[in-house]
Amino acid sequence: MAEVKNFIIADAEGLEDYDYACWTNTTVGGAKIKLVATFVPEEKILKISPYSGSTIPLYDMKSIYFGNSKSQKENLCAVLKPSPQHPKDVWKNKISSFLGLEPT
Questions:
Q1: For residue 24, which phi and psi values (nearest 5 degrees)?
Q2: Which of helix, strand or coil describes residue 30?
Q3: Distance CA 30, CA 25 (A)
Q4: Quick check: is 103 in a domain?
Q5: Is residue 35, in this structure, part of any structural domain at all?
Q6: CA 40 distance to own-chain centroid
Q7: Is a pLDDT exceeding 80 seen at residue 1?
Q8: Could you list the residue range(s) of the whole structural domain that residue 61 is in?
Q9: Is residue 92 in a domain?
């Protein structure tokens, strides 16, 4: 399975104030998972990484959102449904989706 440790946006001048990021998955109904957005001024890149050194599975990634929390634009990471906190909840939601039930 292909997994990545981070995403790099090169030539990121103008993205210095970007301070949030998240990705949505395909297996749990588009649940969001928070990421860390860090601008590296020496290299002029925006580095987007998971918390605590984990990885992002490319097979499960649907979208990545990032931006400036002080901007007037809507923070999609704040309005999307959060991901389940416990692995058992993931399977519960998958089974409910398969059965046509609304995940809880």
A1: -110, 150
A2: coil
A3: 5
A4: no
A5: yes
A6: 19
A7: no
A8: 3-98
A9: yes
Which of 48, 52, 55 is closest to 22 using CA atoms?
Answer: 48
- pLDDT tens per residue, range 80-103: 555 555 444 444 444 444 444 454
**Average pLDDT of the chain, as a whole number:** 77
Domain count across the chain:
1
At 70, which amino acid appears? Answer: K
Cα torsion 66, 64, 11, 71 to 10°: value is: -20
pLDDT the model gives residue 64: 87
**Taking residues 41-58, what's their average pLDDT?**
88
Residue 52 in domain: yes
Side chain identity, residue 17: D
Buried b / exposed e across 15-43, counting CB within 10 Å, b at 16+? beebbbbbbbbeebbebbbebebebeeee
